[in-house]
Recover the amino acids of this structure.
């Protein structure tokens, strides 16, 4: 089941901050994690420090005024022995609040907003901004760092039945021009083409893929499976197939859908070098 919600216009920044300050209590209710590591700020403090930095009218949208949230409910962890019938509404509300929080922090990074505004001009199907440029600003906010810190590149997934190298190269060249003034490193990959080269590079075959969003659910670390794309003129769509609880708790777990589990520790070491307060889940340390 997919939960879809549209948040209307007109919320003031004061009201957003007041509402988001309450979310920390709800997040803590649903976290199954050790005490917050030293150096990690709570969610409400991160929101205050980030200042919800979107500037009205800065990129065609008036800041963070309206979003579509898409969260597959089957991925919610209700915990052992919990009553799904009585708790599902609470978990639905928690996920909805976390999606608000995630988008507020991820889109406080102006480069993300600029990329999302320009993606339709790229002229490709199923284009998603994914991974590190989205969860990075969240972890930066939770550790008191600038929104754009520690972000190495900006990944865009899209879908094109033409799996030739020439077709993908043409899209990359269009992106070079489209994002030239942003001064960023960007990586564009046609997800229909990934099976052609993935096994040769990583030693494991890439599972069958029918849409670009399938690949969002296959990142090495479970909590990093996030993607955002434009939806019409003033909306964005959030896809988080593994949920958002571990992301805000800073817990790194292996993704069971990832075809390259041998890369898990290397990936975690990369994240820990930038955000030392993150923790690897105990079950992954035993592996």
């Amino acid at each position: 089941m997919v939960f879809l919600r549209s948040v209307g216009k007109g919320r003031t920044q004061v009201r957003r901050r007041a509402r988001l300050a309450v979310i920390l209590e709800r997040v803590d209710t649903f976290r199954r994690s050790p005490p917050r590591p030293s150096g990690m700020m709570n969610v409400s403090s991160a929101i205050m420090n980030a200042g919800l930095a979107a500037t009205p009218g800065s990129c065609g949208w008036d800041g963070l005024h309206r979003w579509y949230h898409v969260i597959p409910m089957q991925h919610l962890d209700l915990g052992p022995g919990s009553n799904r019938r009585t708790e599902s509404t609470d978990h639905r509300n928690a996920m909805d609040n976390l999606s608000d929080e995630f988008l507020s922090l991820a889109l406080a990074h102006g480069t993300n907003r600029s990329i999302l505004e320009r993606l339709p001009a790229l002229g490709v199907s199923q284009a998603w901004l994914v991974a590190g440029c989205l969860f990075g600003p969240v972890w930066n906010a939770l550790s008191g760092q600038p929104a754009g810190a520690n972000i190495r590149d900006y990944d865009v997934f899209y879908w094109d039945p033409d799996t030739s190298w020439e077709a993908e190269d043409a899209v990359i060249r269009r992106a070079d021009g489209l994002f030239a003034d942003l001064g960023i490193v960007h990586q564009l990959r046609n997800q229909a083409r990934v099976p052609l080269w993935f096994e040769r590079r990583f030693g494991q075959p890439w599972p069958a893929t029918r849409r670009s969003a399938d690949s969002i659910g296959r990142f090495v670390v479970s909590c990093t499976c996030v993607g955002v794309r434009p939806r019409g003129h003033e909306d964005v769509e959030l896809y988080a197939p593994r949920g958002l609880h571990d992301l805000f708790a800073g817990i790194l777990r292996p993704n069971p859908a990832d075809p390259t589990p041998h890369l898990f520790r290397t990936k975690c070491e990369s994240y820990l070098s930038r955000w030392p307060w993150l923790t690897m889940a105990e079950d992954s340390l035993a592996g």
About this structure: The chain is about 40% helix and 15% strand. Residues 14-285 form one domain. The chain has one domain: 14-285.
